[in-house]
Structures are given as structure tokens and as C-alpha cells.
Amino acid sequence: MKKIVLTGGGTAGHVTPNIALLPGLQKLGYQIDYIGSYEGIEKRLIESYHIPYHGISSGKLRRYFDVKNFTDPFKVLKGYHQAVRLLGKLKPDIVFSKGGFVSVPVVLAAKHRRIPVIIHESDITPGLANKLAIPSATKVCCNFPETLQYLPKGKAILTGSPIRSELLQGSKEKALEFCGFEKGKPVMLVIGGSIGSVFINQVVREALPQLLKEYQVIHLCGKGNLDNSLAQTKGYAQYEYIKDELKDLFALADIVVSRAGANAICELLALHKPNILIPLSAAASRGDQILNARSFEKQGFSYVIEEETLTVDILLEAIRKVYADREDYRQAMEKSNQMDSVETILQLIESEAGK
To answer: Pathway, according to UniProt (predicted)?
Structure first.
């Protein structure tokens, strides 16, 4: 039996593309194992699919000063030795990495074991973890044409992002029942990312009195970010995190307000959902979400609001504009040259695993 190890973690965006590959890999007859951190979000997400999960030590590699910078390299080194032993035991034909810091020791260990590695980079410019891992990779997949200039020519392949097929099969009726909403009134879906955004949550909730006059609002606010004082508000449904019902919520949404993580926006593109992107600010990140958002804005897929300029009035005006122009956004996305990313990556895995 063919064997593959998947790795990636830290945020849901480093896990969901791996999940999108699971049905195809299983159909091709692969035995699948997953390597992630001991208690990261990837552990909970992957174990629900009954895939064998192996936790290793993981440290974060930071671009800024932090006391943990003195201890985390030892965690990474420990993770590397654990990954070397694990790969020796599992003996996979290939490793597929979606990035995140836990993936670095796994990719380095695979090179040590002479196991081919395919990396997927979601953002326009590679993150630090993937920068460290790319020299050890056999091939590097990417989402955006702009990314090719940052990758080694012999390794880079434009594949797009793997999208879970079930996201395309949602039911509006199930979502209406799940949220307790009425038929006929437009629905806005707000997604703050897997850990939520306190600032976006605050602005959305301040805007609710105006929003609820015209829309019903589904708010995915992140763990620990529920506001109990709004629990009985008609037309407003808030959840920390949604898994199984997400496809239905997408089907119901007429407009989406979202962070600009690469996987999230590629899902919006696949679903042709008119959207407003509020990228994580450069002050709180390396600026990758800003680049992602601007690329989508340039192609006519999204309306972008910089987090630093976000206010209730600016959000309300953006929602009015995007909803009024929603057909223009849908048509632009329908005309995009979106690839069948899952099939493209599966063919690449088959090719490299067979060498």
C-alpha cells in the first residue's frame, strides 16, 4: 500500500487544504498519517476524520524579540529528532506539507530520510516556515501567479488551493433551520479566521442595529468571543467555530465579510461569494493578507478595507456597495481561471511518490 504523511498546523488555514486532499488520497489507495503539534488546532481537526495523528514538539520562529526565541529552537530540534524517528517507523512514500512552524522539522526530517516532499504555499510571498523548508522540498505548489517569482524555478508549480468538495454542496434550507432565520431576507456571513478577530467582532456588533434592518447576520467570532448579551437578538446568530454546517452557511450567505487568509479567500472564489476583505494589518503580521486581498481586489473579486481604517460607517458603506454590485463580483469570479487544484496536486503526489 502507498503511504503518505501530511503535515501542517498552527491555524485552520494550514490544515483545511490537507483535509481537502483526504478523499482523493483515500480513493487512490494511500495509507495516510498526519504529523502535527501536540495540542494545536490541527489535532482536533484531523482526528475528527479518523486519520492517525502523531504529535511532535513544535516551537515558533519569530521575526521579533521574544524571550521564547531562546527556548523554542530547542523545541524545534526536539521535533526534528522526533520526526526523523517517526518517518523511519511510518516509511511514507512522500510527505505533503501545508506549512506552519510544526511542518519545518517534518520537512527537514524527510530530507534526512530521503523521502520526497511537496510543499504548498498559500500566500503571495512565502512565510518564514516555508522559506526554511523550501530548500528541502522536491516541489513547491502555490496559489497565485505572483508567487512564482519568489520560488525556485525548477520546483515551483501553480496549482491553486485545494478546496473541500463538500463546501460546494451546502443547503440553504438546512442553514435557515440551523440559524433560526426567516426566508427572503438577505444574509451576511462574517468570518474572523479560526481564532477570530476581537476588533472586527467589536465593529460588527456595534453596527448590528443598522445591519439587522436590512440583513440577517451569521457571525463566526472565534473561540471565547461569544457575546451572551446578544444571544437572543433576532436575525443574529453567533458561533465560536463551525465545521459540519459551514457548507450550509456559505450556501445561505449573500455577502461575506472575512479576513484575507489565502485559503479562506480561495474558498470564497470557488463559491463565487461577493465579499469584503479586512486583511490582518501589517503591524500585526508580515503583511501577507494585505497582498492576498489586493490581488483579489485587482481581479474584481473583492472589496478591501484596511483594518486601520475600519469603522462602523465604513463597514456599512462597503456592505451597501458590495451588495448593490454583487452580480458584478459574481461574474468576475465565474470568469476566473480557477484550477482544479485537488486533482492537480493529487497527480503531482502520484508522480513524485512513484520516483
So the answer is: Cell wall biogenesis; peptidoglycan biosynthesis
